[in-house]
Amino acid sequence: MSDAKKPGPSQVIERILTLELVRVTERAAVAAARLRGQGNEKAADQAAVDAMRRELNRLPIDGTVVIGEGERDEAPMLFIGETLGNGSGPKVDIAVDPLEGTTLCAKDMPGSVAVMAMAEGGTLLAAPDVYMHKIAIGPGYPVGTVHLDATPEENIHALAKAKGVPPSEITALVLDRPRHTDLIAAIRRTGAGVRLISDGDVAGVIFTTMPEETGIDIYLGIGAAPEGVLAAGALRCIGGQMQGRLILDTEEKRDRAAKMGVADPNRLYSLEDLARGDVVVAMTGVTDGALVKGVKFGRNTIRTETVVYRSHTGTVRRIEAEHRDFDKFHLK
Ligand code: VTB
Ligand code: MG
Ligand code: MG
C-alpha cells in the first residue's frame, strides 16, 4: 500500500473504536429500559447518563464532551467540557444524548434511543443546549434543493420537483409543538402531508435518508441544537442534506454560545459545519422504534439492537446483541 493510501493512525483507531461505541450506547439503553414506563423521566435519564459515562471512561481515548447534558454547574456528569476516556488514545470530540426522548421512555412509547457520536477532536459543533431551526432531506437530490431560509412552500415544491412527484406525495416530519402551527399549515397548503412526532428528532432527521421505509421526505422545524449535531453526524455517514441555525434570542444565550466559540449568532450551519471531520454515530433502541428495536428483557438474556454509522466509509451496521452475565458486566 502506498503511503498516501495508508490510513492515518487516528483513522485506524477510529475504525477500531466504531464497535466500541456500540457497547456504550447498549449499556445506556439497557439502563434506561429498566425504567421504561415508570413515568419518571429524570430517573431513566440519570440511569442512562451513569451507564454511558462509565463505559466511555473505559475507552482508549482522550475525549472531550462537546454536546452533553449541559454546563458543568447544572450537569454533574457528561457536562460540556468534561474529559472522558482513559487518556491513552486519540483526541476526540464526544456528543451524547444518553436518553433521547426521555418522555417516550417514561411513557414506554416508541422512539426513545441512547445515542452518541465521536469525531476527530475539534470537528463537532460545540453547541449550547438551545433551540435550532433545522431542515433535512435524504441523499440523491441536487445540492441546494432545499434551503433553511426559503419558505416551507418553496422547499416542498422544490423537493417534489426534484423527486419527480406532486407535492401531495411528499411527507414532512415536524415536532408536534404549538410553535409549529404556522409551519404545519404552510406545508399542508402545498398538498403535502405532515407527520407529527411528540419527541425524538435525531431519529426524525435520519428518517429522511430512508423514505421508502419511513415514508418521510423532509424534516422541518425547531428542535434542540444538541440533537441537531447528533443527527448531522449520522447524515454525514448516510448522505443527505441538512442546515441548521441556533436560536440565540437572549443576551444570556448569545454569551453562552460565544464562550463555546460561536462568533456569529445568526450563522447558517451546513451539514459539514455541524460535523466537519470523520465521525462515528451509534444508536441503541430503548423503546421500539422505526430505526432500532427496543431493549428486550428475557429470563436469562437481554437483547439490544444498535445501528452504527461511520462517515469515513459510509458503512451502516446493525448489531443485535444478546447479553448475559449481567452482574459481571454492569448490565444490572
Ligand atoms: C427537542 C427535540 C428532541 O425534545 O429537543 C425536544 O429536538 C425538546 O423540545 O428530540 P421542547 O422544548 O419543544 O420539548 C426532544 O423531542 C427529545 O429530547
Ligand atoms: Mg437527553
Ligand atoms: Mg434529547
Automatic annotation (TrEMBL):
Catalytic reaction equation(s): beta-D-fructose 1,6-bisphosphate + H2O = beta-D-fructose 6-phosphate + phosphate
Amino-acid positions noted as binding Mn(2+) 2 in the UniProt annotation, renumbered to this chain: D97, E100, E227
Asked if the keyword Metal-binding belongs to this entry, the reply reads yes
Question: Which InterPro entries does the entry link to?
Answer: FBPase_class-2/SBPase
Of the GO CC terms on this record, one is:
cytosol
GO BP annotations, alphabetical order: fructose 1,6-bisphosphate metabolic process; gluconeogenesis; glycerol metabolic process
The UniProt annotation places Mn(2+) 1 binding at D45, E69
List required co-factors: Mn(2+)
Coiled-coil regions, chain positions: none
The UniProt record lists the keyword Metal-binding: yes
Question: What's a single GO MF annotation on this record?
Answer: metal ion binding
Question: Which keywords fit this entry according to its UniProt record?
Answer: Carbohydrate metabolism, Hydrolase, Manganese, Metal-binding
Q: Which PANTHER family does this entry report, sorted A to Z? A: FRUCTOSE-1,6-BISPHOSPHATASE 1 CLASS 2-RELATED, FRUCTOSE-1,6-BISPHOSPHATASE CLASS 2
- Show the NCBIfam families listed in the entry: glpX
The family classification in the record reads:
Belongs to the FBPase class 2 family.
Specify the protein name. Fructose-1,6-bisphosphatase
